[in-house]
Request: fold
Amino acid sequence: MLIVVVGWGSCYVLITWGMRDASVLWFASLRALVTGLLLLAVLLIAGREANATVLPRRAGTWGLICVLALTNVALTFGAMFASTSGLTSGAAAVLSNSAPLLIVLPAWWLYAERPRAVEIAGVALGFGGLVLVAAPTGLGGGAGLAVLAAAGITAGALLARRLTDVDLLALGVWQFLIGGTVLSVVAVVTEGPPTTITWSARFITALFVLSAGATALPYVLWFGELRRASLTSVTAWTLLVPVVGVAFGVAVLGERVTLMEGLGDAIVIAALLLVIQSSRAAHRPRARKA
Reply:
């Protein structure tokens, strides 16, 4: 999971670099499409090219994959990329990775993963921290888009539980290709044709690293964990993503963290630590009495 954390934490620096040469939605759609093609290549090279594996047969499965593509890719990537224009990379990383705070109650309702009182307290505390992070930029614009991206990640995690019978790589291929296609259509309508993209060495490098190291590889690890562990415990790992995102923003982009943002970051991280610790305690086997 540390690979997931580092990969996702580096996203905002790579997005900031890439958007110097491409518009928001075109860059987001290219990230999704390149990721889908990379996963397709791995799927075929691995010898898992049977039709039953690459192409799910049930219509209901395709419906869920399309919903996953719209939420976890199109909505999440579009909102995530657009949010960077109104926030520093560190603040965007904090807000868009607030899925652990959003998933507790839906996981209880849909999958009977009942939260403990301390987890509910952690959720309340975490949202207080998010308000502090969002306050300097207002609750709209970049902050609202970043939270929308977190909602998309949350929906994707919840849907992943209903697609455990689909090959993991095939699920990624169709999820990213369909989501990337939707983003491309929206980009054409709102931004025009991709003629303004500057295919510089910087952009190509940022796109490839973002697609391979910060999307494709973390996807396989992330969805693999979602299939075997509780949603609350898995998503709580993203508490480290904002820390990495802030560190990258400061070290690479020279961003400064305000006192208010720093305090909000600290509260969010403390809240997420509280949630993950409670989850681990709930699933720790009890010692038998002699």
